Amino acid sequence: MKRNHCILLFSFFILFLFGESFAICQGWTDLTIRLLSDSSFAVVEAKAGEKIRHCPHHDSNGKLDEEQLIYVLGTLDRETWLDPENEEVAEKHLENHYDKFIAKVMEKGLQGTVNINRASLTDLVTLPDVGPVLAVKIVEYRNMYGLFEKIEDIRKVQGIGSSTFNAIKHYITVN
What we know:
Distance between the termini: 65 Å
Structural class: mainly alpha
Radius of gyration: 20 Å
Helix content: 40-55%
């Protein structure tokens, strides 16, 4: 009898770990994401008894994680949706959080220069003309190709043309 209970508990554990689809995330382990409540996500879709949770942006304590918020906004186009209307719902929800976050950041103003070799997503979005999508592209470029040697190298990032570079060049450094 005990053995049957153990097998049953183990089966529930396996279903818990592998029974849900989980969202794209940065810096959080798969287990951390699985342990989050549904309220940590922008949208939860259901399909044949399976939950698909999109865009985690609150931690296990319910606190907004700004770095994760920027990441999910910057990678929203990589999500796969059962209902395309849910993408709009998620985007509005996330942008509402982002607008509040960025208003606080802009109130303080830019504090010195931003080192593009070490900057977090939250640091990068403080730059003029840099939003979540471009911030994610900068970090991903840096992770793939290594550190920028001079500030002009940031122009190699897709989406940074002359006007964006001119807007940020006085606010960035590489060392």
